[in-house]
Design goal:
Number of domains of chain A: 2
Order of helices and strands of chain B: HHHHEEHHEEEHHHHEHHHH
Number of helices of chain A: 16
Helix content of chain B: 55-70%
CATH architecture of chain B: Orthogonal Bundle
Distance between the termini of chain A: 73 Å
Largest sheet of chain B: 2 strands, antiparallel
Number of helices of chain B: 14
Shape of chain B: globular
Number of strands of chain B: 6
CATH topology of chain B: ABC transporter involved in vitamin B12 uptake, BtuC
Order of helices and strands of chain A: HEHEHHHEEHEHHEHEHEHEHHHEHEEEEH
Number of strands of chain A: 14
Radius of gyration of chain B: 22 Å
Number of domains of chain B: 1
CATH class of the largest domain in chain A: Alpha Beta
Shape of chain A: globular
Strand order of the largest sheet of chain B: 1-2
CATH class of chain B: Mainly Alpha
Structural class of chain A: alpha/beta
Oligomer: heterodimer
């Protein structure tokens, strides 16, 4: 009986202490602070890729606080919430963090296409911008229908288009695509399915045969897919994987002797954790770059000086990796949006609605990018009410067994193909959700 | 002293057969329902603790209610009828995707007949109920093997349902209205002409569904059909010899269970997630529901609620403990700790009380009856 009483007591104590802790308001917030929530995944199947990105994003914000004392004197505070890449956990984290800080969350950046889809339904009600750097709904470029989504730097359609352009260049011209076979090996989730319409449009235009081959989450089992590729012998394979799926793909490609230099990954399949587990088999593998390469630039010097030298920061051992650098860019865009908004609304903590104005009026010129220490990582970009993407460029790099080598110049995605698709799909979304698109001509 | 039924005489058959025969239970239930239906909206309206922000409603109470409903459904099948199911996630998905199709309009072209089946978009209540119905139909289909195979073998058969429907909703584009990404978004929630939008309205909507279905389930399990299920669970051959038809008993259990799970799936998609993909209803969801039922108590409606609270809310709370106390621990350490603590608690509770929270609850009630003079 004693044991049962103990069990009851344990259960009751666990629940009660939990309740008490959750509902206590936590440490008092100073008023001159801007809260930046960070949805991260440092555990689970996608952690090898989630960790460097989260480190970069966090260390940039720490650096802004240490070097500049925040933005315009407003200190940035951040809190991480572990999502494990799961949509329902991501929604819980969003609800947990959205109201923190004196003015609520400045913006959310979930680094998961699934969570992005779920939050896209929620952010208009809460008036918080959703920053999705290089991922998310491709049609959310249309700010008239998606006022709160900012698919900064590039969408999957941009990536698909540029991947085909690179293939065309390797083949010696866009006309040589005719009659070729290009297969897409993709993560079977909204993330992996996004590029399919853009690739189908290109296949129709350029006359190549396109085949989409799905891989089930989390992607450790893909023998049959690569055997199908061995039978079919496509001229190129595009890889749309994430986490452990990428290195598995490369290993399986090696197992069926598919040449790695004929595989082109999306920018989420082109980082160190994707190639190092495959060892020598990954040599020659190519991937798109979300503009920026691996390596260290002026901004890394500032982070080392102001963050790591003071014993702060979380990402010292991932510093300079591809995904770390992408985390920097993610936070850079968020921070600069807040700075832009401060110019209009004053140097004080801003609400999500005000930060949204900052995103929409963000203009990163070449001079400004240099000043910020991102020269060589980022091309100029400019957002507007109608264009929530801001840029259309990407490069390609290749893994030489030790490091990523840039092998191409900047390509620009063909907006003549993509813009009608953005218009078509966003109109469909607007009709389904009964949204009246904003008139961007009237917005300043 | 307080909880004693001495002096409560049942003077009619109706009183004897009442759903809650003890007066104190009735009062407690009425108070609880009053608090849920009136107290919580009032607290939320005046922004009082603990409902000062939406978090409590949107991230705790709404998912708790929906998963409790799903757990009730699973409990009917697993706890009352003894048919182990690992396909609950699939039945939630069927509910969700069917409700989505009915909510956004169904078009089936029948070109060889020169016609088409066309159903205009239905309002929320109708589409959720039809979602449940579709789930019930599929549940009956996948229940048929239960007439021949038992126990773990049946679990494997239901596992097939899980993987089959994961595949269907990923691959058959008709179910997602040909969305390029395969992710679909719920339509606006029109409930009998009223637009359900704010968190408190969503909460009340879920609460209404859960209350009605919990009462229906409670009544079903203590009636004729529920006794048949339990007879089948306890010994199917003996039940058959006593004149219970296994076909009828097992398939009704599958139908009722899948219906409730399907409704819960539709609510999970429409009210909680808003936009979803098949991953939201994968095998993890099935296992989560099964654990809720086992921890909460097999064969107990109350246990479904307790199990849902334990499996859903405890990790969320543990996750926030270090931060609330101001202990600087990284998020990955916290999430590993949550796994360890939750797992250890599950083991501990199952060792000391294999029948789950519902059994603990009834022990507590027995003790309360004798209190303060136990013998």
């Amino acid at each position: 009986m004693l044991r049962k009483t103990l069990a009851v007591a344990t259960a009751a104590a666990a629940v009660l202490s939990g309740t008490a802790i959750v509902f206590s308001t936590g440490p008092a917030m100073a008023q001159n602070e801007q809260f930046i929530p960070r949805l991260v995944y440092r555990t689970g199947a996608y952690a090898p890729n989630g960790i460097p990105f989260a480190n970069g994003a966090a260390d940039y914000i720490t650096m802004i606080n240490e070097r500049d004392g925040g933005i315009g004197g407003v200190k940035l505070i951040m809190e991480e919430c572990e999502t494990g890449y799961a949509t329902d956990k991501g929604v819980e984290c969003y609800e947990r963090l959205k109201g923190k800080g004196p003015t609520g969350a400045a913006y959310f950046s979930p680094l998961s296409t699934g969570i992005t889809f779920a939050l896209t339904e929620k952010v208009p009600g809460d008036k918080i911008p959703l920053l999705t750097t290089g991922y998310g709904r491709s049609e959310s470029r249309n700010g008239a229908v998606f006022p709160w989504n900012f698919i900064a730097v590039g969408s999957y359609w941009t990536a698909a288009d540029i991947a085909i352009q690179h293939v065309a260049k390797e083949l010696g011209g866009i006309d040589n695509l005719k009659g070729k076979k290009i297969s897409l090996v993709y993560h079977d989730s909204p993330y992996g399915k996004e590029p399919i319409p853009a690739l189908e449009a290109r296949a129709k235009l350029n006359g190549f045969t396109f085949k989409a081959i799905p891989v089930t989450h989390p992607g450790v089992e893909q023998k049959s897919q690569w055997l199908a590729i061995r039978q079919d012998r496509p001229d190129y394979v595009l890889l749309w994987g994430w986490g452990v799926m990428n290195s598995t793909s490369i290993k399986e490609a090696a197992a069926v002797a598919y040449p790695r230099d004929k595989i082109i990954g999306v920018w989420w399949s082109g980082a160190e954790p994707d190639v190092t587990p495959a060892g020598d088999q990954a040599t020659g593998y190519k991937a798109l770059m979300l503009q920026h390469p691996a390596g260290k630039f002026a901004v890394h010097g500032d982070i080392e000086k102001h963050v790591y030298a003071k014993g702060q920061g979380v990402g010292k051992d991932t510093n300079g990796q591809v995904l770390f650098n992408r985390g920097l860019i993610d936070s850079l865009i968020g921070v600069e949006a807040i700075r832009t908004a401060q110019e209009k609304f004053g140097k004080k903590p801003l609400t999500g609605e005000q930060v949204r104005w900052g995103f929409e009026n963000l203009n990163l010129t070449a001079a400004r990018i240099k000043e910020l220490g991102f020269e060589g990582m980022l091309a100029p970009m400019k957002f507007s009410c109608a264009d929530h993407q801001g840029a259309d460029q990407a490069r390609v790099h290749q893994w030489d067994g030790k490091e990523w080598k840039i092998i191409s110049d900047f390509y620009t995605a063909d907006r003549k193909i993509l813009d009608p698709m953005v218009a078509e799909y966003s109109a469909k979304y607007a009709a389904e959700k009964k949204i009246t698109p904003r008139d961007c001509a009237k917005e300043s | 002293m307080l909880y004693r039924e001495a002096g409560q005489f049942k003077t009619s058959y109706a009183a004897d057969m009442a759903i809650f025969p003890i007066r104190q239970d009735r009062i407690a239930l009425i108070l609880l329902l009053l608090f849920a239906f009136v107290g919580i909206p009032l607290l939320a309206n005046f922004q009082l603790w603990p409902l000062g922000s939406d978090y409590m409603l949107r991230a705790i109470l709404i998912p708790f209610l929906i998963l409790s409903l799903a757990a009730i459904g699973v409990n009917i099948l697993v706890g009352y009828c003894g048919q182990i199911s690992l396909g609950s996630g699939a039945f939630m998905a069927i509910g969700a995707y069917s409700a989505y199709k009915f909510g956004s309009g169904v078009h089936i072209p029948l070109e060889f007949l020169g016609t088409e089946i066309s159903i205009p978009p239905l309002p929320l209540f109708a589409s959720v109920m039809l979602g449940g119905l579709m789930s019930a139909i599929v549940g009956i289909l996948f229940g048929i093997p239960s007439l021949r195979i038992k126990g773990l073998y049946l679990a494997v058969a239901t596992l097939a349902a899980q993987f089959f429907f994961d595949w269907v909703f990923l691959r058959v584009k008709w179910f997602t209205n040909y969305a390029p990404s395969g992710s679909v978004a719920a339509p606006d929630l029109h409930f009998f002409g009223y637009l359900v939008h704010s968190p408190i309205e969503r909460y009340l909507l879920c609460l209404a569904f859960v209350t009605v279905f919990a009462l229906i389930a409670k009544n079903l399990v203590r009636g004729n059909i529920g006794r048949q299920w339990m007879a089948i669970r306890d010994m199917d051959i003996a039940a058959e010899l006593m004149g219970i038809r296994p076909l009828y008993a097992k398939l009704t259990a599958f139908a009722v269970s899948s219906f409730i799970v399907g409704v819960a799936g539709a609510l999970w998609a429409f009210v909680y997630l808003g936009a979803w993909e098949p991953l939201a209803f994968n095998i993890d969801r099935s296992l989560q529901l099964l654990f809720m039922v086992i921890i909460g108590g097999l064969g107990s409606i109350l246990g479904s609620f307790l199990g849902a609270a334990f499996i859903l809310i405890l990790p969320i709370m543990l996750d926030q403990v270090p931060h609330a106390l101001g202990i600087p621990v990284s998020v990955e350490t916290v999430s590993h700790l949550v796994f360890i603590v939750t797992g250890a608690l599950i083991c501990y509770l199952l060792i000391v009380e294999p029948h789950g929270f519902a059994r603990l609850w009834s022990i507590a009630k027995e003790k309360l009856r004798l209190w303060p003079f136990p013998y």
